[in-house]
Amino acid sequence: MQDEKNKKGIIKMDSKFLKIDISSSPHVKRPVDVKKIMRNVVFALLPVSAFAVYAFGISALTLIVTTTFFSVVTEYVIDLIEKKESTVGDYSAVITGLLLGLTLPPGFPIWMAALGGIVSIALGKYLFGGLGFNVYNPALVGRGFLQAAFPVSISTWHPSFQADRFTSFFSSNLAFPFAKPTVDSVSGATPLAAFKFEQKSTEVANLIFGQTDGSLGETGGLLILLCGMYLAVRKMLDWRIPAGIFAAVILLSVIFNLINPEKYPSAMFMLFSGGLMIGAVFMATDMVTSPVTSLGTWLYAIMIGILIYVIRVWGGLPEGVMFAILLGNSLAPIFNILTKPRVYGTKKAGAK
Amino acid sequence: MANSFKHGIHPPEKKEISADKSIKRFPFAPYLVIHLAQHIGKPAKAIVKEGQEVQRGQKIAEADGFVSVPMHSPATGVIKKIAPMLDFDGKMSPSIIIEPHPGSDQNVLVGREVEPDSLTPEEIVKAVQEMGMVGLGGAAFPSHVKFSPPKDKPVQTLIINGAECEPYLTSDYRVMLEQAKRILRGIKIVMKALGAKETIIGIEDNKKDAAQVLKDAISVDDSAVKYVKVEVLKTKYPQGAEKMLTKALVNKEIPSGGLPADIGVMVSNIATVSEIGELLPKGQGLIERVVTISGKGVDNPGNYLIPMGTPLEFVLKHAGVNEKARHVIFGGPMMGKSAAYLEMPITKGASGILVMTEEEHAPKKQKVYPCIRCGECVNACPLFLNPSRLGILARNDEFDKMAEDYNLNDCFECGSCTYVCPSNIPLVQYFRVAKKVLREGRQRKQQSIAG
Q1: Contact A18 B325 (CB under 8 A)
Q2: Among A188, A190, A186, A214, which Cα is nearest to A201's?
Q3: Is B374 exposed, middle or buried (0-12, 13-18, 19+ CB in 10 A)?
């Protein structure tokens, strides 16, 4: 009765004149989401991939397409099996596939690359629970698997800029599954291996502009750096990680190079050779597998830089980027805990 | 280099929509609704009867206890009804409904003028309560309670919040440009009540002209020049939060769970001191306030002096609401509350009315991705909490752990984490729920012990 009176007599209300939606604050939102970030990382990887194709021809194109295709298909199939909404649309599997492809040597057998794509997603990502839950960078898990399973194929290098690169494959690309791949008569050596095992140095300018041998995506140092800067400027990549890795490597290189330039390579050589540039810019920066705190991020980056130097210079392998990042990934949660900042208004870190 | 705090975010400011619109008086709505419980504390008690004639400025409800404030009539008219009306939370709240007389000249009832210098601190506190004064920044906490800190915690520094860090809002900016003298008068009164030694006015560097106006006003005021200073702060959200302001201006942190008085400061909003400076000497009550009306959903955005109790519907129509309007928000876009009913009136805590279109507002349905541990929220949280971790705990209903190990209760819900999250995880919304669950759990426990 009371309500009726309210409606009729005392107050005439016409709230139907405007249809309004309600929502809980904040009512504005930064126009950036996971999909947009991932899509931009893919954009940033495209020039690097294009350069790989330019340098190594159809072998590179086929390898990169293969790893990407199998990564995406694996993600799609696992989602189907788990009866989950497909997550292929978030582009993260594309990144994994591209990155894996870029870490392979140009003459790598294609069937192995396909296997690498499947392992990256299945073991590197879904074993842990999918996007956001993986401990290790999935592409590096795939790469690590391939290195353990096919140690010869993954360390056989073919020279870049062959005259017939756009018309023919390296013969080892087409190796039949589980058959022993034929080794090409012309086989090159990466600048790092040349330095380590033959004490042969490579012109730094050639490293910067990609005129050397090596894995598909690691030869164009400057291009990788520029693509990374695009992401950093758009705030889709944490610049502190490459900066910390570079700083650690440069510092160690300069010190030891001063002591004995014959034995220890120069800082520029260290930065632009091997997988350091692509690892520091595109792999160590994987958000899921790097720390979240500011100080933790710096420690993580510096530790990876030191490990790269130590493995390259004193370790048994010519290259150490992959293992350095995988080790860094496994310590990321510890860095988060150790560097938990002091909460405003509390006495010490983690105080209740 | 302007002072600031660490972390925080930079949402688009959108102040240009209304910044250059000077404060304009709003007309009277056909009826005004005065909620008796629009402040924190006990509701006021009505002292008028239905059908009674009231004059603009006349007290119509009195404070019920110390943490409570009286209400004054915003218009000369007749008390139409004393009945429950919808309030913010969708509950029926006791209210006084006034119908202004259309023919009245609407002169404000002359109050008992006082000379603030002759008042003792206790008398100022009493007078501020009599004004019905609450914090105009949004919290609507009774001002006189803040002006009476515990005896063992004297306040040395009065901090005046002129940061206005919420996007869109420009009412404080206009108040600073247009009411500098009132502000200084108010500061002197509040300082006397508190026994404070100095006052710092913090203003973000996107309002340098307002800072200059205040500096000029201080320089020609013999007494203010000695103890009032203006500090320019970096434009960053949530610069105007109590905890951030004290960090930026006096480089001290309010202890977790404590009060500003614990570190000898008191923070007050600039509009609050301006109203005190104007109304207290005249012995009048708070009957209107400056409100920013902004957003693409209105054709006449601006800063308006609106009588308390004006229904939203009237406000929107007068501001030229257009057909694109979809969201009506009390306050700023970061911490403001959605209005669910247009019957709701302007209250003392309403600093802004945003009328947003669908495009302006955060998307209604966003795909939520898993947390990718990007750290954006960790680097946005002004309190150095870990929203990412808290969010994961909230999903697992581990509310106790959130409070005990991850300082949930320090969070003042600024919304920075939700704003930046690329996975669209509603973090601050989770935290609100978690706090509510914990609060209710505690209450039940107390009741069962008592019972």
Answers
A1: yes
A2: A190
A3: buried
Tell me what percent of the residues of chain B surpass a pLDDT of 90: 83
- Minimal Cβ distance to B243: which of A13, A35, A344: A344
Contact B386 A292 (CB under 8 A): yes
Pairwise CA distance, residues B428 & A195, whole Å: 54
DSSP state of B337: E
CA neighbor of B32 nearest in space, from B70, B90, B89, B73: B73
Closest CA–CA distance from residue B14 to any residue of chain A (Å): 11
pLDDT digits (tens, 9 = 90+) for B308-343: 999 999 999 999 999 899 999 999 999 999 988 888
Q: What is the mean pLDDT of chain B?
A: 93
| Residue B429 to residue B431: CA distance in whole angstroms | 5
Mean pLDDT lowest for which of A39-48, A99-108, A207-216, B374-383?
Answer: A207-216
Alpha-carbon span B259 to B41, nearest angstrom: 17
**pLDDT-derived band at B384, boundaries 50, 70, 90:** very high
Q: Do A28 and B11 touch (CB under 8 A)?
A: yes
Do A158 and A169 contact (CB within 8 A), yes or no?
A: no
CB-based contact, A233 to chain B, within 8 Å: no
Q: Is the pLDDT of residue A12 over 60?
A: no
ipTM: 0.90
**Residues A343, B243: C-beta atoms closer than 8 Å:** no
pLDDT of residue B451: 59
Short-list B202, B256, B206, B258, CA closest to B232:
B202
